[in-house]
Write a structure and sequence with these properties.
This protein is of the alpha/beta class. The chain has two domains: about 5-205, 2-enoyl-CoA Hydratase, Chain A, domain 1 (Alpha-Beta Complex), CATH 3.90.226; about 210-260, Lyase 2-enoyl-coa Hydratase, Chain  A, domain 2 (Orthogonal Bundle), CATH 1.10.12. The chain is built from eleven helices and ten strands. Strands 1-2-3-5-7-10 form a six-stranded mixed sheet, with helices on both faces. A hairpin with a 2-residue loop joins strand 1 (about 5-10) and strand 2 (about 10-15). The two termini are about 30 Å apart.
Length: about 270
Amino acid sequence: MNNLTLTVENEIAVLTITRPAALNALNSETLDELNTVLTEIEGRDDIKVVILTGGADKKGNEFKSFVAGADIAEMVNFSAAEARAFGMKASVPFFKLMNMRQVTIAAVNGFALGGGCEISMACDIRIASDNAVFGQPECGLGIIPGFGGTQRLARLVGMGRAKEMIFTCDNIDANEAYRIGLVNKVVAKEELMPTAKAMAEKIISKGSYAVSIAKAAINNGYDMDIKNAVEMEANLFGVVNDLFGVTCSTHDKKEGMSAFLERRAADLTDF
């Protein structure tokens, strides 16, 4: 891979976007690589959490940019058809981040502008360093967000705040992003990766199969009416309690409940 690095340790994958000369901006090659590596990760039982972050800039500053946006140099001469294709190309790995059974955490270590804000929003959880900057500057370039920004931002922070950010192109700092619900945590720069890894370890310590089913329930139920969403949850609750709906209860269900009743630590291994 030319633009990504992947390391795996203790069931945690750290996926780093590395385009130092472009502040990790997303071009077609990077999106293709991202799709390829996420497809690989989806099939690996030895990875339960993915942490997505940005690499250092060309001066070696690790906290300059998470992803500075989509690559304007590639986009500048797009036709309408090419622009649509570029947006659809991004949607494939972005939906993988959103829907894959592994939990995805964006460790935002600097600029998260345009496509950078959008890819962070595709992740399940966002942790920001205290110098992180978020924004959707597209309208200032005569275009609109094309990687899901008009949709995911409104779902995370509400329609009014999303419209303000997109219409004014104003950037917001990490603390404001936390205040409006765009990020889950803000930490000092030096604590960003330790915090992300600690959260990953905590998630892994729970029932990974149950976590993956809970993720699917949250994602799939979000746009349903409440009655159908609760019915879907009940169906999935049945799946977790009795795998395949017959008599083969999951190990984690038996072990987790037994451990609770016996007041001991549970050994949860399903995925």
